[in-house]
Amino acid sequence: MSFLRFAARRVAEMAATLLAASFVVFGAMYLAPGSPAGFLLSGRSASPEAVAAIKAQYHLDDPFFVRYLSWLGDVVQGDFGRSITYRTDVSRLLADRLPITLLLVAMALVVVAVIGLLLGCIGAVRGGATDSTILVGTTFAVGTPSFVAAVLLQGLFAVKLGWFPSSGAGDGFGDMLWHLTLPALALALYLIGLLARVTRSAMLEALDSEHVTVARSRGVPERQVVYRHVLRNSLGTILTTGGLIISTLLVCTILVETAFSIGGIGQLLELATTTKDFPTVQAISLIIVALFMTVNLIVDLLLPLVDPRITLGSRSTSV
């Protein structure tokens, strides 16, 4: 299968999946107890005319499929509706908060990639006590959920030592990097352990392969053996795990943002869910689904480039 044909097929599959996801996202909120009208009234009694006006403003009395098709048509044009909680366009809320979340995820991803790959490589190549120490450390990391890491890091480095801010996202790029350091570490801790273990296992398997033995017997320097034959042959597994890591970061950022009061889309989603802010929940959920699928598409397209044994449309190596 040609690259362009495969890419076109995957994009078509993404569009179909996104359409199905949009229906589920839109319908799920209406299955939950409560209503946006009840939130807008804040428990106050209101005349039937006032309730009818609220329902008319948000089209709550329209048939379900009419509301869905109207919402989908607006979404295609970039209009996610108006937030019930904030009384403003959802698109504006996303434009204000999405960059913060993306910066947090990017910082955490860099930390995971650098430390996770380094620990995995060192553990696989050196072995012995070094490998055992790394295994113990990564076991602790994998067993620590993001929200627990957030509380521990916040209590030690922000409250007790005062080295980092305890909340907020900061003003300006430099200040934002400073404020997001602890949240990024909390978000990355579990995934560092995961990537380190995957990298170590993939490299140990490659070290036992026949072509590595042949390269060593020919006198190829150990550094070149590790780089050209071991690490390169492990990239397929590592890249596949990288897609899972990015998806996990997008989900776990909700907990970390809430713990540090960062004000990104994760914290916005948590608040919108509580207040039955239908348009905001639907928009954020759809964006997260779209990001998931985009990450998977990129991984599928990159895998054959980093590992020729993998063919387009397959994530398994041929034996």
UniProtKB/TrEMBL annotation:
Bilayer-crossing regions:
100-122, 134-157, 177-196, 238-263, 283-306
Write out the GO cellular component annotations: plasma membrane
Q: Which family does it belong to?
A: Belongs to the binding-protein-dependent transport system permease family.
Keywords attached to this entry: Cell membrane, Membrane, Transmembrane, Transmembrane helix, Transport
Extract the InterPro entries matched here: BPD_transp_1_N (IPR045621), MetI-like (IPR000515), MetI-like_sf (IPR035906)
Q: State the compartments where it is located.
A: Cell membrane
Protein name (Swiss-Prot/TrEMBL): ABC transporter permease subunit
Q: Which SUPFAM superfamilies match?
A: MetI-like
Q: How is this protein positioned relative to the membrane?
A: Multi-pass membrane protein
Record flagged with keyword ATP-binding: no
Q: Does the keyword Nucleotide-binding apply?
A: no
Instruction: Please report the stretch or stretches of sequence annotated as the ABC transmembrane type-1 domain.
Output: 98-299
Q: Name one GO molecular function term.
A: dipeptide transmembrane transporter activity
Instruction: Tell me which species this is from.
Output: Streptomyces boluensis
